[in-house]
Amino acid sequence: MDSASTISQWFSSEYHGITSPSSAQCSFYIEADLNGGHIEIYEQPPTALEFSRLVHINRPVLIRGTATRNIFYDLHSFYSQEWKYPLFDSGTMSISLRPWTPTRFLLRLRQTGSILVCALGPSHLVPKFSRADAVTRSLDGKLYFVEPHIEKMKMSELLSKLSRETEDLEIYYLQSQNGNVYSNQFFEGKPDPSEFESLRPDIPSEIPWCSEGLGKSPDAVNLWIGSHNSVTSIHSDPYENIYTVVRGSKHFTLLPPTDGWCLKERMYPHGIWRRSGTGLTLTPSPNVSPIRWSSVADPDIPGKLPQQVHPIQLTVVAGETLYLPAGWWHHVRQADNTIALNWWYDMEMRGMAWIALSFLRGVGDVPSGNDEADVDEGEDDCLQQDSAIVNRGM
């Protein structure tokens, strides 16, 4: 084991409260996971002071129903799973509703006439998951970090495609990630046109206890819509993330920043899915710098993580909000027809938190993901491109 790996694993052990017998601080072995695989649950929203303490501790927290009633307006029935009007119902309805009921939101959603920017990637037969924004093996055997193909369409078209994904060879996901509801332009008092302008009256631009606790406005507010075929590969972000599930559910696999060493980050050439004929083809981007990304395609596969690493497994259902601290690694799956909103707040660059995260990411050299010795053969089920699908138009 090289010195960089030793340092990284020492940080991980200290975080989890695991001390080896050779430690200079003690002469016995301690295995008491101080930070553990548990998650704290709030039945009501934190105050601004409580939230600032949570940010200081840097631990995720699940906030249940009453919390999101504080985020939105009158949501007493917002998260009922009995939908009077299904998501993919067609036609025009004339109904009288209280502010911010699920039916009203879905009706507004269906009637959004703007042109949306949607991401899509090819599906796989086994497993049938989109591999966009992830490491994928090309037909020549080389691994690439591949971004999704982008297309513009109306909301009605997106919802129609999501409803028949079992028949399609492409996976659609609304995931523009650039503040598609509110961007930083809005918070700077500048013009901020949005394809979801009609939804803004129902989506607050800020979370009061979060903005007050951090002393700042969000950097971006995003709307996410997708099916169970959309899987987010494991990664971390420099944001304090407030993530609310509106409909469906999201399953998170969470790891603290100190456990990043076990995700075996590598440098991969950049690629993008491009439409070719009637299919999608992985196209290299020779003018784009290599991308640093985890080589562990699915941390939930048994044996993919070291035995001493215990990720937090958490399902966030409709009506619940996850506070995901900056720097935490997360792999995300979702149920069908899932709708979510999130508020990204820039993490504080002053003080030690940013320095610690930068140190953890900067320890040791990051090898190429295409060095033969570094290729994890067990990942091939997740990484292999299916030529019969993605190149069917060639």
Topology diagram in text:
Elements: H1 3-16, E1 18-19, E2 30-31, E3 40-42, H2 48-57, E4 61-63, H3 65-71, H4 102-110, E5 115-122, E6 134-137, E7 143-147, E8 149-154, H5 155-163, E9 170-173, H6 184-187, H7 208-214, E10 220-226, E11 232-235, E12 239-247, E13 249-255, E14 265-268, E15 270-276, E16 279-284, E17 291-294, E18 312-317, E19 321-324, E20 329-334, E21 338-346, H8 352-362, H9 380-383, H10 387-390
Parallel strand pairs: 3-4, 7-15
Antiparallel strand pairs: 1-2, 4-19, 5-8, 5-9, 6-7, 10-21, 11-20, 12-19, 12-21, 13-18, 13-20, 14-17, 15-16
InterPro entries: Cupin_8, JmjC_dom, RmlC-like_jellyroll
Protein name: Jmjc domain-containing protein 7
Organism: Mycena venus
Main sheet attributes: strand count, strand direction, barrel closure: 6 strands, mixed
Count of helices?
10
Radius of gyration: 22 Å
Q: Multimeric state of these chains? A: single chain
Strand order of the largest sheet: 3-4-19-12-21-10
Q: Calculate the terminal CA-CA distance, rounded to whole Å.
A: 46 Å
Number of extended strands: 21
Query: What is the global morphology?
Result: globular
Structural class of the secondary structure composition? alpha+beta
Domain JmjC: 181-360
Pfam family, one: Cupin_8
InterPro entries: Cupin_8, JmjC_dom, RmlC-like_jellyroll
Protein name: Jmjc domain-containing protein 7
